[in-house]
Amino acid sequence: MAQQLRPSKPADKQSKIDWSRRQEAENFAETVKLFRQGKIDPDMFRRFRLQHGAYGTRMTDDYAMVRIKVPAGQVYPNQLEKIAQLSEMYSIGSAHFSTRENIQLHWVILEDVSEIMQSLSDVGMTSREACGNTVRNVMCSPMSGVCKDEIFDTTPYALAIARFMLRNPICQGLPRKFKFNFTCCEKHGMIRIVDVGLLPQIQEIDGEKRKGFKIFLGGGLGNRSFVGHQLEDFTPVEDLLYTSMAVIRIFDRMGDRKNLSRNRMRYLVNDLGWEKFQNLVLKERAVVKATQSVIVKLNIDDSVNEIQRPISVNDESASVPDGYARWEKTNVEKQSQSGFNSVFIGLEAGDITANQLRSVAEIIRDYSAEGFARNGFSQNIVIRYVHDDDLKSMYSRLIENGLAKTGSLTMASAVGCSGTTSCNLALTNSHRLAKEVQRKFLELNYDEDDDLKDSTIKISGCPNSCGQHQIATIGFYGGGGRHGTDMFPNYTMSLGGKFDEDAMLGHHTARVPVKRIIPVILKIIELFKENKQSDDTLAKWIDRVVSGNESSKITGVDDIKKAIAPLIVPPNVEDEPDFYMDYGSDTNYHTVTGKGECAA
Amino acid sequence: MCCMIDSDIPIINSKLLREKIQENSIRIVDVRREQEYQQGHITNAVNLPLAKLLADDSSESIQKIAQDLGISDETPTVIYDDTFGALSSRVVWALQYIGHEDVKLLDVTFSQWKDLGYEISTEVPEIETATHSVKINPEIMATAEYLEKVKENKNVVIIDNRERLNYLEQHIPGAINIPYRTLATDGKILRTKEGMKTLLKNRGISEDAEIITYCGSVGTLSGLAYYALKSIGVPNVKLYVHSFKEWKSLEKPIDKQENANYWDLSAE
Predict the structure, then answer these.
(1) Any CB–CB contact under 8 A between A67 and chain B?
(2) Which fold has domain B139-265?
(3) Which of A185, A547, B1, B68 is deepest in the core (most CB within 10 A)?
(4) Does A166 have pLDDT greater than 90?
């Protein structure tokens, strides 16, 4: 490995914002006690628990999952080290990076949650309002501030909205959860599949360049998914808070509080019709502006981040480690700042060990000129501002710590929700399946295939959408299938989902037994290779197939169905017992679910 | 003989130990492997590789070990390891079992001691054999038979100190899980007294309960828990020395967290 000489490490950067409130930990401990003594109604306790970021765990009341919010995905080395320690003390020795930039600790004993909250306060973090009917973690593209296509950096606005909404009385009892996503550009953020999605814009008004947004409302994935609508041409930054408040007020007033399965804002938008909803928002915004007794403003800190390359003297004689070219090709993006790169660290379905978390913290200190990391949208971590000259040495460090998995920016990095590893609602082990798919792709070197680069695979363990399967090129959600009297895990496959400016939900194509998913994916890739045009990609090809615009041998979804039909026929249980078992299980499959908490 | 170590302090502070080293009035025992010991140890420390103790943990054997290390009934003794205190607590327990009273853990590991820049040496001190009596202390020992008999008792709390995933997969019915990592704090092998009390309070464990700790096989991780509990003044703590390995081999009942694939959440 390259020798690092570091005469003076810059001081450790720490979060400027303290999201925690220390007394909440003690209050939580007391409330758990009262609940255990039967002095608090279980439903009330559940709402309280969720409000504080402790989610229920599969088939048990003894454990919780603690969801730590990471607003705008900005996470600091000391925070990662703290989470490493907490995962060993109170969880399973691994932590999980979610698709919404949270970091989760699973299988935590409910009585220990308060100790975690207490320790999170030491590093300025909170789990408050990470679950429940609240404004959830405010996301921001991990490329915001470094993206080549961005108009301006929305990170300060994402942080300001997160600050404004956290513990805000109006956000404590919404009809249902509420999600904000900020992005840098259409490609890097998922702004059309959330309640409020924001894309930066600049408009010239009276000869003056003004910052603002395109705001998309009422999108969301779930049992029924919708793509968001654009509110107006341009919303100036001064109107960001008023617009957000107007939308939340309308949702709070008119959202469905009775029908648990239809109470996300997207249903309200759908029921009213977009035009009516749009008018309501615009009117409400005028009211919000006109009736405020004091001027309320977002606290926007747009001071420039200090960029200081950690002092390093690379050993020029060190050899380039094996696999560097492949890793660089599939994990590194050039930034708009010349000489700097954003390095994507891929994790299998978002899981990382305590020791790896500590290594990531050290690597951030040693290589990132901004001194912190960003959580990605695909269960990954992004270390930015890595200098061109430091990439090889950083790669060596990542290899040493098992963090140099290739294909982070490619189809190989499959997303999988937690599934039956911890979730009450799950029907299948989607988590392990995502890991299996990824391993297969890397084994076949598919991460290096440019034709596959812009495609995605996303897997949910039930028809809800934590795995975001609807926006994947190839998406799956879990369920049960039956052959005679024998059950097997059976996924519904959708094709052609997209989340960019042409956002589209995937097209349901077939039901695929779990142990046939890898063969079916490989078959689809094979069909594509046989029928593709010269400059084609799998995503483009599937797009043409699902929209009936493909003119090769495969003209539509039906042809794909025909081609995979022989693969998905269930064998007899005696001939292939493994077919009837889910991944990670050595007994025959049967569906077991508990009560979901999304609606609590 | 006057007690050289303040008995109100459960574990010995590394700074205090440095003073005692000068006085050469205590016995310091390094329980790492012989080879590691030879490469450098705390000045004046003698070596007792844990394996030697485990090879035969009859009271006669423990007595002989103590005598050979120059530990008499009155010798203040301090134990350390480089394994977050787990190995040394098992030795503390063994000495307490034969009736030795003045034995404590060092509050840091050997690595931390070294990092602090404190004295280490490769010199092996000369040992003058001592005489140690055997006054068995039965109330700190639990056997499988005993555990099975009392595990339903209301006042008995069984604590499994293995990692969470091992516990979820299988454990003694009724046991609760406090992974050994929960016992430590930043840079010290044990939590503060206050921190330990908070943990018990949150978990609803009464300090008046009879607590039995166990772990995977030889009572090291659970030895640390035993020591942690004793050190905050919990009066009735027992170590199930042969732990889960024996429990399983005796085909005693086992509980498991069903219908969840928690192992697949681990990145190991």
Answers:
(1) no
(2) Oxidized Rhodanese; domain 1 (3.40.250)
(3) A185
(4) yes
